[in-house]
Amino acid sequence: MSQGVTMPPMRPVDVAVRQETESQTHETVFDIQGLQAGYGSNVAIKGVDLEIYRNVITAVIGPSGCGKSTFIRCLNRMNDEVPSFRHEGTILYHGVDLYGDGVEPVEVRRRIGMVFQKANPFPKTIYDNVAWAPRVLGLKKDLDERVEKALQSAALWDEVKDRLKRSALSLSGGQQQRLCIARAIAIEPEVLLLDEPASALDPIATQRIEELMQSLKQDYTIVIVTHNMQQAARVADRTAFFSIDSDEDGRYGVLVEYDETPKIFTAPSDRRTEDYVTGRFG
Q: Quick check: 128 and 165 in contact, CB under 8 A?
């Protein structure tokens, strides 16, 4: 890191711990305080405060236009690619301000990987897709083993191990999405951000992605944006419900409620949450 800023170790042990239940604790990975983000004069989200915990699947749900994708892209500075992007507030990653002086976006994205709504494999071989990021970062030692491990972790190895030199574009849509997950985890990040990863997939491929998330959370912290409430209920440990508010400056997204997933769907604290999860709104 430049200017003397040091990112935390990949598996920190001396971080804040929050009691989730009497028998289980989770380390805080992200501590988000007063987050406001937007583009130009338009505010996308305002006043977001929440903590995201290690080895937990956190779902972000809400109606279209409530800022779900803007929020998740703030977590690895992907919004920096938009020239008009601006933000206020803080996002602490193990106590380090991700937007602080000297924090390099490339290093942030190495530790906080992302998979997008539409599978976007490179027009390269299956092997080269997974090996691309390690090569860029100079992680060339034992590259074959690294590629195999990533494909195994993404539940894809058995399907592609005999055709690694074939084009990634020859894979099915569900396989391509799992390849993109393998590509993301090949450099061993701590966090995986999934932005509507199954929205373009059929039910069988969607089930594979959901099963994969449950497997991956043993090693990764996962944040998933989904428009599919049933999916959130199936896979997420915690759920954040965003809705839309407005003032004299226009419409923007707000975090209405954030809690353990069963509570969000069966006993929400806010009427807006109840209206949304029961289909009366959104």
A: no
Q: Is the pLDDT of residue 278 over 70?
A: yes
Q: Specify whether the backbone of 51 is left (phi greater than 0), alpha (psi in -120 to 50) or beta.
A: beta
Supply the DSSP symbol for 1: -
Confidence of residue 248 (pLDDT cuts 50, 70, 90): confident
Q: What angle do CA 245, 251, 255 make, to 5 degrees?
A: 40
Task: List, for residues 90-147, the tens digit of each pLDDT value.
Answer: 999 999 999 999 999 989 999 999 999 889 999 999 999 999 999 988 888 899 999 9
> Which tokens go with 58?
């956190």
No. of helices (H) and no. of strands (E), the chain? 10, 11
CA distance 267 to 210: 24
Give the phi and the psi of residue 120 in degrees, each rounded to 5.
Answer: -130, 60
For residue 49, give the H/E element and its range: strand 42-53
Cα 87 to Cα 35: distance, rounded to the nearest angstrom: 7
CB burial of residue 246 (10 Å; 0-12, 13-18, 19+): exposed
- Identify the DSSP state of 270: S
Which CA distances in Å does 111 have to 13, 31, 107? 16, 16, 7
